[in-house]
Amino acid sequence: MGDVNSTGWIDRDSLRELPPWLTGLANALSDVDPLEISSFLPPPTGGRPGAVLILFGETAAGSDLLITQRAAHMRSHAGQPAFPGGAIDPGDADAVAAALREAQEETDLDPGEVTVFGALPDLWLPPSGFVVSPVLGWWGEGTPVQVGSPDEVESVHRVLISELLDPANRVSVRHPIGFVGPGFEVQDMLVWGFTAGIISRLFDIVGWTLPWDTERYVDIKV
Prior knowledge:
The protein has 222 residues and is an alpha+beta fold. Helices cover 20% and strands 31% of the residues. The chain has helices at residues 20-28, 34-37, 95-107, 161-165, 193-205; strands spanning 48-59, 62-70, 81-82, 85-87, 115-119, 123-125, 130-138, 153-160, 170-174, 180-186, 189-191, 217-219.
């Protein structure tokens, strides 16, 4: 399957299964510099290994991304929208297996319907200490999804890419500690932080981003 932790890893065989609009993103993975995605790269001492699934789909309504909203009582990133994912367990063969397992547990998706076509470089989440492998997948219309683990997930959303690209839904998010980053106001959620950063940078890399008002701020309250 390839080394999912390598920058630009692509499963070339899987490209034949992707829709034309997604092959450009898949091919762009080979040229992605880690710093294009995040300024938080894994420290030399490492961290707890984790994986997330960036899952693209397409329904009658349009192309979409699978996003969960974490439960409000979680110890880290409580209540935040996020990609399905979590820690890589000893029983997981690799980051791909972990990402698919976590997504199934959280959303009841069928991993057998997912075509994994690549990954982004490992990224560092300082608040939780995770070194995260972002795994990219495609599943077409996919199975119906729902909250599979109420202890971890409050809600599950298939968010249209057109909604995420709409300049009216884009904001700059300010955190009290001084962090400023991209955000998306979609489906009664404010997507920000790690998840919004990856979405925004992927859109930039493949040239999908539309001009938007970067001076429209939303302040995070903690």
